[in-house]
Amino acid sequence: MSIGKIGVTSNDLFPIIKKFLYSDHDIFLREIVSNAVDATQKLKTLASSGEFKGEVGELRVSVSIDKEAKTITISDNGIGMTQEEIEKYINQIAFSGAEEFMDKYKDQANAIIGHFGLGFYSSFMVSDKVDIVTLSHKEGAEAVKWSCEGNPEYTLEKVEKADRGTDIVMHISEEEEAFLEESRIQELLNKYCKFLPVEIAFGKKKEWKDGKNVDTDEDNIINDTNPAWTKKPADLKEEDYSDFYRQLYPMGEDPLFHIHLNVDYPFNLTGILYFPKIKNSVEIQKNKIQLYCNQVFVTDSVEGIVPEFLTMLHGVIDSPDIPLNVSRSYLQSDGNVKKIASHISKKVADSLNDIFKNDRADFEMKWDDLRIFIQYGMLTEDKFFDRSKKFMLFKNTEGKYFTMEEYEAIIKENQTDKDSNIITLYATDVDAQYTYIEAAKAKGYDVLVMDSQLDNHLINHLEQKTPTTKYVRVDSDIIEKLIQKDEVKVSKLTEEQRNDLIPVFNSHLPSGKVNYIVAFESLGEEAQPLLITQSEFMRRMKDMAAMNAGMGFYGEMPDSFNLVVNSDHALIENILNDKDAKMGEKLAEVSAKLTPLFEEREQLDALKKDKKADEVPQEEKDKMAEVQKQISAVNAEKEELLKGYGKDNQLVKQLIDLALLANNMLKGAELAKFVKRSVDMIK
Fold this sequence. Notes:
Pfam families: HATPase_c_3, HSP90. By secondary structure, the protein is α+β, with helices and mostly antiparallel strands. The chain folds into four domains: 2-219, Heat Shock Protein 90; 228-366, Ribosomal Protein S5, domain 2 (2-Layer Sandwich); 392-482, 3-Layer(aba) Sandwich (Rossmann fold); 495-682, no CATH class. The strands form five sheets. A nine-stranded mixed β-sheet has the order 1-6-5-4-7-3-2-8-9, covered by helices on one side. The protein has a five-stranded mixed β-sheet with strand order 10-11-14-12-13, with helices on both faces. Helix 18 (570-607) packs antiparallel against helix 19 (618-648). It is elongated and about 125 Å long. It starts with a strand and ends with a helix. Residues 94-102, 104-117 and 325-330 have low confidence and may be disordered.
C-alpha cells in the first residue's frame, strides 16, 4: 500500500468544494453516476474502434445503499482505471498546479467542480471518506483501491476485484444521512439520471403482495436510455410525443402541440418543446423546460439559454455545446448561448408559422390557449414580433379570426378617421359591453375581442409599431366619436339648459372613489337617453398600473367616467319640461339675482381693460372679488335647487341606474332598489 498527497498543496481544497457547492450538494449523485456512464460509453467506443477486443457484455450502472455501513455505492462495468490512471486523473486535479488553481478559483463560487475534471470530488460534499475500487479493461491490469478522508492525503493499494469497471463507495457523513434513505436517492436519480444513455439500476422492482410492497428478482431500471428527443422526427408518431410528455409531466394536461428541435450546425442541439394550455389568468409556470447535456440533466432554470417568453414552454433541450460552469448547474453568458437562444426563438416562430399554414382551422381552435404565449413573445422580443405577424390572430365578436394584414384590409375603408388613422375597435367583455358593440355594428364597424391579460400591453406595443393604427375600446366614447369623421353633430340644447341638467343628473350619480362628468351629445332620437363611457387613455393607464407597480400614480387616481346625455331623446326633453314646470319660478327668482351682479362684473372688467395687473387699484380688485363671491353663492343656491329637484325625480334616477346597469356597475343595495322602483313604475 502506498500513501500520497493529491496534487493540491493547500488544505483549503475540500472546504472550498463543500462551501461553494453546498446550496446544491445533491448534485454529487449526478456527477458520480455521470462519470460511471462515461466510463461505459468509453468502453463501447474502444470496442467499436477495435482497441478493446474483449467481451463488452451488458453495460450498466448500479446504485446501492447500505444503511448499516452508511455507504452509497455506484458501480459500473466500463473501462476501469489502472493505478497510473488514478494517479493521473484523481490525484492531479486535472493537471492544474496547486498554487495557480487555488489563487485563481478560490473566490469563484461557481467555478470549481466539473470544469477542471473535479466532478468526482463532489462526492466529498456528503462523505467523510470515499473509496475507489477499480479494475481496468486493459489486459493484465490489476485491481486497485484508492481511499481518501476529505483531505489531501490518500492511500492506494492493490486489491482483488472479479469484474472490470469501477466502484465508488461513499461513506456518508452524519449530517448527510438523509441520503441513505431509498426514497431520497430514488428522487435524485429520477431528477438527474432519468434519461441517461446507459441503464441505471437501483434496487429491485416491487410488487404488491400480502398487503405490502415486496422486492422481485427483476432489477429496477430507473431511466429511459433512448428518450424521444434523441430520435429522428421521422421515426416518431404523434402518440410518441404524447407519451413522452406524460413521461415528463405525469400530472400535466395534454399540450396544444410540439416542436422537435434537431440542429447539427452551427452547433448541436436537440429537444422537444411543448406548448401548454395557458388561459387568460396567465398561468405562466416557468422552469418547466429541462436542460440536458448529452442526456445528463443540468437544470430546469433555463433563463440564460432560451428567451424569456419561451420559458413558458415545457419540454427538453439537450446540447453539448452549451457552456456550463463547474457545477453544471449554471449557464455562462457568452456568444454561443446567445446564438442558441436566437436560433430556438427562430425555430419556434418558423414552426408556428408552418402549423398555421398547414392547418389554419386547428390553429384557430387552439388560439385562445396559445395567444398569451405569442403575445408575450411579441412584447419581449422584436425579432419574434416581426416573425409572428404572419400568424398572430385577431378574433372578432362574431368568432372569426384574422391575421393582422387581413384585418387591416377588412376595416380600412370604413374605419379610417378624418386624420387617416385606421381605428381598431375592441371589447374586453362581450357581455358587459354588448350595447356598445351593437351600436358599433349598426354603423358597419367591426369589433375585436381583446380580453387577455396581456392585451392592454400588446395594444400599446402595436400602436408604437404601427403609428397609423389606433386601438379604441368600444365603450370609451359615443359611437360618433369612436371614429371621428368630418361631420360633427351639435347638441340642440342651449348652454343654459345643459347647465341646468348637470346638477339634476349629478344628484343621483354614485359618490366615492369614482368621478363622473356629465356631457351632452346629439345621438339621435333612437339612441339610448344616457350612456356611460370611460376615457381610453385613463383606462389604459389604470389597467397597466394594476400590473406595473412603477405606475402607481395612475393606480391611485380615482376612476373617471363620462355620463353622456343624449340631447335628442324625448325623455331628456320631458325632464327639461318637468323641471321648468316645477322649478321655473324659483329658478327665475334666483336668476334675477344674477343679472345685476353680471352687469356689475362687466363694469369692473371694463375699468381694468388695457391695464396691467399692478395698475388696477386694490379697491377695484376687492370689489371684483366680492362680486364674484356673490355670483358663486347665487350659483350654488341655484345648483342646490336643481339637485333637490333631481333628487325627487324618479325618472332621472331610473335613467342613471339603467346606464349603470348596462355597464355592470349597478350592484348590491342599489340594484335591489332599482328592481323595486321598476316594479312600482310599471304598476
